[in-house]
Amino acid sequence: MPIDYLQKILTAKVYDVAIESPLDPAPTLSRRLNNHVLLKREDQQPVFSFKLRGAYNKMAHLTPAQRAKGVIAASAGNHAQGVALAAQRLSCRATIVMPVTTPHIKIAAVEARGARVVLHGDSYSDAYGRAVALQKSSGATFVHPYDDPDVIAGQGTVGMEILQQCQGPIDAIFVAVGGGGLISGIAAYVKRVRPDIRIIGVEPVDSDAMTRSLAAGRRVILPHVGLFADGVAVKQVGKETFRLAKLYVDEMVRVDTDAICAAIKDVFEDTRSILEPAGALAVAGMKAWCETHRARDRTLVAIAGGANMNFDRLRFVAERAELGEAREAIFAVSIPERPGSFREFCALLGNRSVTEFNYRFADAKTAHIFVGVEVAGRHETRGLLAAFRKAKIEAFDLTDNEMAKLHVRHLVGGHAAAARDEILYRFEFPERPGALMRFLNSMSAGWNISLFHYRNHGADYGRVLVGMQVPQADKADFRQFLHRLGYTCVDETGNPAYQMFLGS
Question: pTM score, two decimals?
Fold first, then answer.
């Protein structure tokens, strides 16, 4: 018998713990986008996320006998806190399995609500496998973060509130998508009551399981997911959430890390609240959709999904927000090493503010410069690039070059002529003790590390740039080393930022 989600959502038990979150106007963002923007403030929930709605609804529907055996869940973040709060209110034992890479602040928040934390594995998948095993041995009820009708119905109360709070026209509702629990719940309600409203899902470009699944007509498994927006870093969407998304979701939008950072800044400017990356995802997608569709004078709702931001990640967000708004452009420029050439180059920049400038003498003929410039948008970036080339100045636009933004801007310091046979790789290391030692122990004793750069970005994974001297005869052994290591990596040896500023 089909599930009647309208009835399930109307009778969901969420308000013992959840608030009816405000639907606030975003005046600054509305003016910039020429649309009426409303933010559904789920960041104001008691655990600073919508996740407690689904967790509590699931657990409130358990029988007394089921509750007596306790509940178990796997999560590295907001779902864990939602389950812990629900268990506390319902006087129910809760065990949360979290990856060992989970920041201590999140572990402490779950334990503070009385839940037992079990640390296992490096990823959510590892933690999920352990939780399933514990559930089978204990008889506890597993509380899935998204693929459960009661969880979906709990999240669907967000959609119910939006329609109650905004009686006038709504053109589209933008929802962040991880496993799909929130968007399928909202869509199941909204499409029954107001089918004219478009439901638009938003995913990071490097965690787009729902976008790919809807395009393929089946659930796909991503080999790797990006971890910046860790709240939506899911390799495969749920069975039930995918079924509902196929029925009700009108469109998917994908955005990159810079766009998410810019959205965090946008929400801060309107509300003085700092969303976590996954919490700002819907806003980033709304902005991208407005630009693509040239939308004007529409009423648009974006779900501000959560505010569990690690404080040490703010530096990275601030650095990348300007790039996400296309307010800063980064160039690699080659100019003649002669008196007056620098002045001529600066004249081409005009009155624009220089945000960053890195230079080191390399040879007697050519100077390589790494420069950041304040611009009004991508059109101005293209205009500058054309002006450089017209003046016969070799220039590369590095604004979308991940290696340049993450590493090279902090490393510019000249070439290493003695670093023969150097290759350059960008790795993602799990942020845990022993990760670097595992890397070093896996390497051949004959390969010298000639460059190494790491910065903490407040994420569960660290980003590391490594240069190694690997002779041609060892290339096959090197490929085997990468396979054994198992870390996500990108060969950056041919990257122009490396060739111009760091290469041998």
Answer: 0.78
